[in-house]
Amino acid sequence: MLQIEEHYDVCVVGAGHAGCEAALACARMGLETIIFTVSIESIAMMPCNPNIGGSSKGHIVREVDALGGEMGINIDHTFLQSKMLNRSKGPAVHSLRAQADKAAYSARMREILQTQEHLAVRQAEVAGLLWEDVADHRRIMGVTTVSGAKYFSKAVILCTGTYLNARCLCGEVIDYTGPNGLQAATHLTDSLKECGVEMQRFKTGTPARMDGRTIDFSKMQEQFGDTPIVPFSFTTDPKDVQIDQVSCWLTYTNEDTHRVIRENLDRSPMYSGVIEGTGPRYCPSIEDKVVRFADKNRHQVFLEPEGLHTTEMYVDGMSSSLPEDVQVAMYRTVPGLENAKIVRNAYAIEYDCIDPRQLKSSLEFKNIEGLFAAGQFNGSSGYEEAAGQGIVAGINAALKVQGKEPMILDRSESYIGVLIDDLVTKENTEPYRMMTSRAEYRLLLRQDNADLRLTPRGYEAGLISEERYQHILEKEQAIEEEVKRIRTVHLGGSEPVQKLLESLNSQPLNTGTGLEELIRRPELDYDKLAPLDPERPALSDEVREQVNIRIKYEGYIERQMKQVRQFKRLEKKTLPEDLDYMQISGLRREAQQKLAHYRPASIGQASRIAGVSPADISVLLVYLEQMKG
């Protein structure tokens, strides 16, 4: 029998949100790429909530877009409703969130992949890795499929999501499938272990889907989208996304709901010991909420549409692994769901993933040259976290093949950098979820300036066009020039000035002041003061927004910039890859073991490893100075 053998630059395993971004990045950088999926219909599938963005996650989508990724563009084409979250708070935590048409989102991404030059899409289950032993490590050579076909490549990116040895649980019923009943990947784990990859087991879950025709929305609070709508992608014209939006709905659980759950906890796989994997703390099931927050007599439940061409509604806030009969009883205690019919049961899913501390910051395995990993396979959760890792893994795999240095995003320049750094340096005993509180420099890492921060990095990698790069340079120049001009504008206490301030409920001026000082008042901003500034140039909305933020938060921004400069100094102090930590006297035993195991790239990264104290860092700094001498 003739065995199939093909050759590519990069093989991508898995076509979820991480795999799509990874494969597109490699192909758009000119590398011959192939992406494998167990089902073509599962490309960019949303097995859980069909939305993109949300608190901190919206930042990541903007960053993926700024680097040259597809997620932001795709949701701009396929959303049903859009909201900017946290508007009442400062700009650091503003986050876009859009409800997607689930089928349309997947279909468009599939079209993008199948029409992308240098990219082949293949429906096949990858069963193993091909590698060779080289000196003190292994080098990846490609993958093999269940059929025995071999695909040789210079780099492989693993983006298997929740498919590896997956099993779905609904009460006593266990199905050995991937999400949405799709085929699980049952062969690859053994090959990974043989190659020296350490595996672990995590769990996630999803709520039931209801038939919208059987829901009484009159008992719920209607939730509307924003007007005007703000697009995710910096390349999308805002005029193109002003659509008629579909409503979402809010209701609540109650004591009856909680009673049904408590009475049946012994039938939940989570509490009966059937589930082995660890679930996400920040996205708990409804039974977990009832147990952990026993003092609360109700929890929010959002009913969200799955698409324009389906009646299915997603029951956000009530994921569960309870048996089918308990689910029916539980959901029907919720106002508006008394007569609702379930289309798809809620379920929990267990799957194999890795301890991401085996990875470098480039997302390449430390001991397996050319093997990269991204997404839920790395122990994270969420479509957006997956996409952020996917584009970084794709860029770095491509750079590796091209013989170039990797692109490392650090904590001071992106949420993606925070995400990856947390994964590769910290012990994560549960699926990692991004939150704004994880970013130390979040005032600098706003979603509104993601293009200014990261488009130059995407341009360096080869994913951003010259035209788009020049637009960023012009935008930055316009912002700088306008901030500089505003600092020269002085206002006296004339009648027009006092009248405008009075109309805006702002204190009148006793003496003359600068326009800059007025903009800093909480109740005022750059646009509101336009009538007092007849010399100001005509600027775009995005430039005016940046000018306003830079002036309003200048003191706070400068303070964080100072912190970043200190952070950068530690990040630049690199540690040799072959450093023998066990021979460094003065290091505590725990620090020696942790440093030897994780092999941090810099003093900064070493300082973030659990078990390495400030005193240990001082010892390392002294040791590095002695090495220089």
Layout of helices and strands:
Layout (H helix, E strand, L loop, with lengths): L4 E3 L2 E4 L3 H12 L4 E5 L13 E3 L3 H11 L3 H8 E7 L9 E6 L1 H13 L4 E5 L2 E9 L2 E9 L4 E3 L2 E4 L8 E4 L2 E3 L12 H7 L4 E8 L2 E3 L9 E3 L24 E5 L2 H9 L5 H4 L13 H7 L7 E6 L6 E5 L7 H8 L10 E3 L2 E8 L13 E2 L1 E3 L9 H19 L13 H11 L24 H12 L4 H21 L3 E2 L3 H9 L9 E2 H5 L21 H12 L1 H19 L16 H10 L4 H5 L6 H15 L1
Parallel strand pairs: 1-10, 2-3, 2-11, 3-7, 9-22, 11-23
Antiparallel strand pairs: 4-6, 5-6, 8-9, 9-10, 12-13, 12-21, 14-21, 15-19, 15-20, 16-17, 17-18, 18-19, 24-25
Helix pairs in contact: 1-10, 2-10, 2-12, 3-4, 6-9, 12-13, 13-16
Can you offer a commentary on this structure?
This protein is an alpha+beta fold and 629 residues long. It is built from 20 helices and 25 strands. The strands form six sheets. Strands 16-17-18-19-15-20 form a six-stranded antiparallel β-sheet, with no helix packed on it. Strands 1, 8, 9, 10 and 22 form a five-stranded mixed β-sheet that branches. A five-stranded parallel β-sheet has the order 7-3-2-11-23, covered by helices on one side. The protein is globular.
Number of DSSP-assigned strands: 25
Biggest sheet character: 6 strands, antiparallel
> What is the terminal separation in angstroms?
64 Å
State Rg.
26 Å
Count helical runs: 20
Strand arrangement, largest sheet?
A: 16-17-18-19-15-20
Low-confidence runs of at least 5 consecutive residues: none
Structural class: alpha+beta
Helical content stands at: 25-40%
Shape: globular
Q: Taking all residues together, what is the mean pLDDT?
A: 94
Strand content: 15-25%
